[in-house]
Amino acid sequence: MGTRCDADGRRGLAGPGGPELPSMARVCDHLLGGTAHFELDREFAADLAPVLPNLPEHIRVLHAFLGRAVRHLAERGIDQFLDLGTGLPTVGDVHGTAQRVDPDARVAYVDADPFTVRLAEAQLAGARGVTVTRADLCEPASVLTAPGVTGLLDFTRPVAVLAMAALPFITDDDELSGVVAAYRDACSVGSALVVSHLSAVTATPEQVDRFGDVAARIGCRPAWRSADAFRGVFNGYDLAEPGLVQTARWRPELGVEGTGPGAQDVDTVSAVGLLVSRPVPTELALVR
User: Fold this and answer.
1) If you placed Cys at 273, which of 18, 22, 193, 259 could pair as Cys (CB 3.0 to 4.6 Å)?
2) For the chain, which ranges sit under pLDDT 70?
3) Pfam families recorded for this chain (predicted)?
4) What is the span of the domain harbouring residue 77?
């Protein structure tokens, strides 16, 4: 959601200028029962259905995990959230969840697609403690110096960095590690990282390939990574219990609704990392 791949496979800030192409952000909104989507998004969701039949459950499980993680961190005292690759804030959005715990919680939403950003701005008009910024999460310096981020969040205090759907579209492993580390290095001790990633749990190799073929129509073929391959992005973090697990297995006792009987078969892994000490900054870190 938060990145766009052009024909050269390079990510840039600009997404489609209007609804000429489907958007995964709007597809997710459709599957979550929202209203900020168009006929071409619903048609694209229908094209994906035979490829990955559990996609609607996949989206619901990710959304429920995000709610549990945000609630958990807000209850730990974190009141600042940087949501990367936001897509469209919909029912059970980050600021609503966080502000139910702490009415003064603040959320900076970031997405690269200008049309998605315009829709998000319209949805969030009048919301307190919230900004929406158009920027590419693959360019941490641009994100971390954007007025909508610096004017709302204080990085000398703990910040939870959220990246729920965009990381599979960073297909180079070294780039993925470097981008995540740059956000880590900008944060203070006590901050957190909340991420999910595509990981074949029940999907067959054929389904993975076909899903990539369909996804490529709107920008970029995503990477699927095993839990072991993805674990490296948490360098410098301590994993909150129960660690990096199938998404539905992360703290279900927190009770955020939205999953069904097929939740354990959803093809994602998720975790929450806690920044308990200052790591040595990486070369990609933002100097501030």
Assistant:
1) 193
2) 1-19, 86-92, 256-264, 279-288
3) Methyltransf_19 (PF04672)
4) 24-274
